[in-house]
Write a structure and sequence with these properties.
By secondary structure, the chain is of the alpha/beta class. It has helices at residues 8-15, 17-21, 30-38, 68-75, 96-114, 123-131, 152-159, 204-216, 227-236, 251-255, 257-261, 272-280, 294-308, 342-352, 357-376; strands at 42-47, 79-84, 136-142, 162-166, 219-221, 242-246, 284-287, 313-315. The strands form two sheets. It has a five-stranded parallel β-sheet with strand order 1-2-3-4-5, sandwiched between helices. A three-stranded parallel β-sheet has the order 6-7-8. The two termini are 30 Å apart.
Length: 382
């Protein structure tokens, strides 16, 4: 953890390559640069560019130049959980989501090669990349509908570098669904009265997938899962779980324009009991980007800390750190009062709201690293 800040801050700032490259991006407070330089910071939920599904093809045709590495450095992010969601294809046939899963892994392979980057398979990889000031990704999927009842596909994905799996997203799997979904969307043409729509907790197959992730060394993420599913999963899991991108269901969460305009979206907010159960089992709950200002985002972090403790709070923006040109501002420009790269801005606002540097380091990545290390430790590398 960070030592007491003093005159060494200025020296570290001047010697750090991050400090030299992005001095114009950060606040003048030298504590911010020191915190960022010494922290293995992790956005627990960040989206890469995801091409549309190409039915019947081994790979998608898209090959956009995405400047992932420099945008992560600008953000002060050591790593991102690099995610794709197969239910972006809203009208699948059996087998389509598995094929799309493979296409997204191939797309990630190409993007990482373009950026001279790689996937972290263990905490050793995260530490080495941070020491070299080289961004790295943790391969993630948002929703595991692609498994389709075939448990061996989890190990297949593990061998492709998957180390973080969000069990559910917005749609149930076409066969062998996994768990209840907070804000369920029905695939185009499906029967809204089907038995699948009534699933609220963890299914037996969903429990098997969690056990398999624990066996292999894959972090299980329960973002988008119902409270009943989370409580059931906590009884099955041998390792801590994470809920990467949410916020407390309170006045601040419900005041955001997205919720006022779409009341159904309140299902994505979580109760104090939900968050505390995850924390009591050693897990981490992440705050996402939904708030209209950086100040309110950090206030939401503080509110979560008050419920689960600073050791169990993290950040999962649910943004894209390097969107293609013309497709949104990205992680480095989420809010109108964000005047620096993402982690720099968040660290500065957390200091302003009374957080200590050690606490900022934990929330910005240290807590996720603890879980990632515990889950992956002792498992063979590829």
């Amino acid at each position: 953890m960070l030592k007491t800040l003093g005159g060494a801050s200025l020296a570290l700032c001047s010697n750090s390559s991050l400090g030299r490259m992005y001095a114009d991006e950060v606040a003048t407070d030298p504590r911010v640069t020191k915190i960022v330089a010494e922290t293995i910071s992790v956005d627990m939920h960040n989206h890469a560019y995801q091409p549309p599904y190409a039915k019947g093809a081994e790979e998608t045709g898209a090959d956009l130049a995405i400047d992932l590495s420099s945008q992560m450095k600008k953000a002060g992010l050591s790593a991102v959980c690099f995610t794709y969601a197969v239910d972006g294809d809203r009208s699948p046939q059996p087998g389509d989501w598995y094929q799309y899963h493979l296409q997204n892994l191939a797309n990630a392979d190409r993007m990482l090669k373009q950026n001279d980057m790689r996937r972290a398979l263990s905490m050793k990889d995260l530490k080495a990349a941070h020491a070299e000031n080289k961004p790295i990704v943790i391969q993630d999927c948002e929703g595991a509908q692609w498994i389709e009842g075939r448990l061996e596909r989890v190990e297949e994905a593990y061998k492709r570098g998957l180390r973080h799996m969000q069990l559910v997203h917005q749609m149930h799997a076409l066969s062998s669904p996994l768990a209840g979904v907070q804000q369920l969307i029905q695939p185009t043409g499906s029967d809204p009265n089907s038995q699948v729509a009534d699933i609220s907790g963890l299914t037996p197959f969903g429990a098997d997938v969690i056990r398999e992730c624990n066996r292999l060394g894959i972090v299980v993420d329960l973002a988008h899962a119902t409270e009943a599913a989370v409580f059931a999963a906590l009884k099955v899991a041998r390792h801590p779980l994470v809920v990467t991108h949410t916020a407390l269901d309170n006045a601040l969460g419900r005041s955001d324009n997205q919720y006022v305009g779409n009341p159904g979206l309140t299902a994505r907010l979580v109760s104090r009991e939900y968050a505390k159960a995850v924390a009591d089992a050693g897990g981490v709950v992440g705050i996402w980007h939904i708030f209209p200002t950086l100040k309110e985002f950090v206030t939401a972090i503080k509110q979560m800390v008050e419920v689960v403790g600073v050791e169990h709070t993290g950040i999962g923006t649910d943004t894209s750190v390097a969107p293609p040109a013309g497709r949104g501002a990205g992680t480095n420009a989420i809010w109108p009062d964000q005047h620096a790269g993402f982690i720099y801005a968040v660290a500065g606002e957390m200091l302003a709201q009374g957080f200590h540097p050690q606490e900022i380091s934990r929330v910005a990545g240290g807590n996720y690293c603890r879980v990632f290390d515990q889950v992956t430790r002792g498992h063979a590398a590829l």
